Amino acid sequence: MTLKQIQESLGAEVIIGADKLDMNIKIGCAADLMSDILAYASPGALLLTGLTNPQVIRTAEMKDITAICFVRAKRPDKTVTRLAEDLNMVLLRTSLPMFESCGRLYSKGMIGLGHLEPDINGTK
To answer: What's the total number of domains in the chain?
Structure first.
């Protein structure tokens, strides 16, 4: 799924990175706990979050995440936007809540980490 398709599915505004909307994203992850992102996110994933602080960008950088979508109409400030721009990240913003955003992307074929790793019972 391209970032353009993600943007359209979520009715999202492009904050930065409009020139990168042809980038393919295969995996989505959603969290407001950066420790969860550090533990479970995969490189190249789309991060959906309601947090807009610099730690989100730094965490994404550590996990090689290049696209972030802020949910619940959250808008990062200029410091966060500038940091993401310096790191060549794409930032999107949607008014949808996280649950609905995930549902829309899943219904369009985006997978989450549960399709790649064993579940909590180790049965996959």
So the answer is: 1
